[in-house]
């Protein structure tokens, strides 16, 4: 795998309300991987991008400095809470996962059968049997509606608004109001070439941009200097030795030259035992690693054979991060854009052929994460949310389904009222018949759980006060 360390200029200007515009350079570690495409033919190149420790500066230091300049308040509660938000990008099929319609006409209902769970009325797909055993620990909203045009824009999932609104990512809002202490306040496990538009902090301030850390090898290279061979990081001893070496280099640097307090603080976070331990998956037992699955698990996207990576251990890393105190962790999993014409163009079979390989992986990951949080007594401290940018058309087209924003789902676990299904769609799964909710209601539920009032305002780039959400009323069944 090619590793390139480069200095890049972030052409997005740093904005802190009331402060002048500025431009900063970041040192990043980029590891290029395989490429996937959705139906829009935009390449989804997987790669690893992490903030790299260099003697000439550290991006995290800039983040800390800007945060101090903004005098951002902290709204930490007596009992801190965290969020893990899992985005199923591409448009997961609600009709084939969590809202099956076995009595619908054949051109709507699909090939899968629903199964009962341990909660009456909480039926789900036959390929999600593990979640059926823990439905009492889950809460399903079947009536999420989106306003974004039917394109692959993830802004509504990450901000509550369409892309054109240019609103701050929910992780940046959470970072602004909740400090991570000795660990970063906002970690993204996104495979992304730099800062994505949907995880951009916008006018919340660049000090609240996410720390991008991919799973697997990227974790092991957090803070590692240029020239380190990835093969040397394959065992626990070399990993710990590398971190110890970085720590010694930091201490030596402080002895020979002045280090401003923000850089010093950034170095402390990167090299602290708490941060190091949070990212160190080798501390987990073989039993736990097996419970979550492998980094190189594979599923079938639109072809015939398994050809795409499902990094199961990203869920484990997310659990370790929130357990260490990171307020918000986001991750993007799988490929869910199952158009019939695209499937046929590449010689594939059907949406159900793909989902037969993908759903068991999702099932295991959700089951592992939720049961692990409960076993560790974190179920009241951590909120888990799983959703995508829209559902898929109820009417089948060429053994696939197209984009459908009028009906989708949101699956919750953890620090909300669980063991329930909220809302119903019509007999064909086209639109809600009861309890329709918006993306802003879903994100408003997250804010409410963390003690953040969605009525609070932040000045935008023009100095105009902007409420966090226009309609952020939380979903009452989950929080009352």
Question: Which stretches are low in confidence, meaning pLDDT under 50 for 5 or more residues running?
Answer: 1-36, 42-58, 71-78, 215-237, 254-259
CATH architecture: 3-Layer(aba) Sandwich
Structural class: alpha/beta
Taken as a percent bin, the fraction of beta residues is 15-25%
Report the span from N to C terminus. Answer: 49 Å
CATH class membership: Alpha Beta
Total E-strand runs: 22
Gyration radius, in Å: 22 Å
Helix content: 25-40%
How confident is the prediction overall: mean pLDDT? 81
List keywords for this structure.
480 residues, alpha/beta, 30% helix, Alkaline Phosphatase, subunit A
Overview of this structure, please?
With 480 residues, the protein is an alpha/beta fold. The chain has a single domain (3-479), classed as Alkaline Phosphatase, subunit A. Helix content is 30%, strand content 20%. It has 15 helices and 22 strands. The strands form seven sheets. Strands 4, 7, 8, 9, 12, 13, 16, 17 and 20 form a nine-stranded mixed β-sheet that branches. Strands 1-2-3 form a three-stranded antiparallel β-sheet. A hairpin with a 6-residue loop joins strand 18 and strand 19 (432-434). Helix 1 crosses helix 8 (261-271), helix 9 (273-279) packs antiparallel against helix 11 (313-324) and helix 11 runs parallel beside helix 13. The longest helix has 25 residues, at 351-375. The protein is globular. Residues 1-36, 42-58, 71-78, 215-237 and 254-259 have low confidence and may be disordered.
